[in-house]
Amino acid sequence: MSNWYDTPLYYDIIFDEDSQKEAAFLETLNAQHGADPTAKILRILEPACGSGRLIAALAQRGHHISGFDLNSHMLDYAHQRLQKQNLSAPLWQDRLEDFTLPTTTPPFDLAHCLVSTFKYILDDLGPTSHLHHVANALRPGGLYILGFHLTDYSDQKPQHERWVAEREGIHVICNTHTWPADRSTRQEKLRNRLRITRDGQTTHQETHWQFRTYDLPQVKALLKSAPQFELVTCHDFNYNATAPLKLNHTTFDLVLVLRKKPNPNLIPTPSNSPPFPDSIV
Predict the structure, then answer these.
(1) Residue-wise DSSP of 178-243
(2) CB 3.0–4.6 Å: which of 108, 118, 140, 178 could bond 262 by disulfide?
(3) Which residues belong to any copy of the Methyltransferase domain (predicted)?
């Protein structure tokens, strides 16, 4: 059985549906909170760009896009997608924790990493290192839009999600199973099963992996470790930029809108700079 990241077409069929909605969401957030709200063409970085669905969607809108991913199959698919659409974008293979930008890369206006990809960083130091690298890649006032699911450690029931999608006669059913999180290790086990029907033949794929887990206090601790950023607002996975999210114990789908502080020499200490503004908590 193949790893679903090694067969980008099927992964893309499942997740491409919301690409234009997500692209519009990112544009609106920049207009609301970015360093240059009037800018029509943005420089955008996508860590863990996967199959390139958002790379292409944003490039179609005229933005200058760069991205990286750890999986070479995903990058090959992303390159092919851009070529078919007569689009171009610098893409390279790299890790979330310690990525390196190509030389002479100007600062970005916005970076984004949605759909919980950030949770692949399993160790204690990697998440903070990732935020520091993203901050270094952004211009002062630039935004980092970071989305991931939060964990309810008291919920010991397995979770299940199911998606069904079709493209050009290829039918894909995606089932993802998540086991209860282990609070002591801050990890949860996941399994994905794909059922692919193509040219009258049905095949199956199964992938296992682990995510790092976060509850709300752990998110607050994470943001304290990256004082280059201020938290501007939050949203959920509906990607409605006009509906900010009020965080509480029932919040589990979280999109953070982080803004790089204009002058890093004036960053307040964590003790007098709460990571969550009063308007958000």
Answers:
(1) EPPPBTTTTEEEEEEEEEEEETTEEEEEEEEEEEE---HHHHHHHHHT-TTEEEEEEE-TT--TTS
(2) 140
(3) 44-142
CB distance 202 to 196 below 8 Å: yes
Query: Residue 171 maps to which CATH number?
Result: 2.20.25.110
Name the CA radius of gyration of the chain, rounded: 19
User: Given 195, 211, 227, which residue is the final one in a domain?
Assistant: 211
Whether 278 is covered by a domain: the verdict is no
Distance CA 92, CA 46 (A): 11
Q: What percentage of the chain's residues is helix, strand, coil (to nearest 5)?
A: 30, 30, 40
Question: Same domain for 248 and 146?
Answer: yes
Classify 17 as helix, strand or coil: helix
Residue 78: phi and psi, rounded to 5, are -60, -45
Residue 268 forms part of a structural domain: yes
Q: Are 227 and 270 in contact (CB under 8 A)?
A: yes
| Domain total of the chain | 2
Answer positive or negative: Cα dihedral of 148, 152, 158, 159: negative
